[in-house]
Amino acid sequence: MHAALRNNLFFIKEHVGIFKAANNYDIFDPNSQQKILECREPNLGFFSKLLRFTDYKRFTPFDVVVSTPEGQKVLSVKRGVSIFLSKVQVLDGNDQVVGSFKQKLFSIGGKFDVLDAQERVACTLKGKWTSWDFRFVQGSTEFAAVSKKWAGLGKELFTTADNYMLSIDPGVPANDARRLLIVAAVMCIDMVLKE
Fold this sequence. Notes:
Elements: E1 9-14, E2 25-29, E3 34-40, H1 46-51, E4 62-67, E5 73-79, E6 87-92, E7 97-103, E8 111-116, E9 121-127, E10 133-138, E11 141-149, H2 153-158, E12 163-168, H3 177-194
Antiparallel strand pairs: 1-2, 1-12, 2-3, 3-4, 4-5, 5-6, 6-7, 7-8, 8-9, 9-10, 10-11, 11-12
């Protein structure tokens, strides 16, 4: 696992764009304010781009790659065409499957299970329908939380840019695969639950 995933705080900043098809984010260490990771959709096909501007956006496939600013791949998040419920695959920097996400059928606010490589539930992502707050939990244990940080009313009204703060509990070990799965999940909350 890449050293950047050992951080406990991540500031995730979406690229500003009025007409944009791809989901592109930069991930910063809020303490040092240094960019530590980049999230891009480098292989977005023509028809997927076209459908991203329609009501069918939530059904489009995605292949999100998270890498260092120098270009070293850290993880990727992939989904094929989604008609009813999303099944998302997470791969590490060596393209080995480390887990997946399975959307819950009837959930208020959004919910999906975060599964490990053996398809066991590592934690569950739960959201509130009244706000953009999500928690990664297993039973009564909370592993991480993510919330939307507003960058000013004018910017939010005229662009689709979102900023998020991810906080991973320091009790989650530095090399625990849940860290990779949690960061991957945050990259696709919008695409799976909110669009």
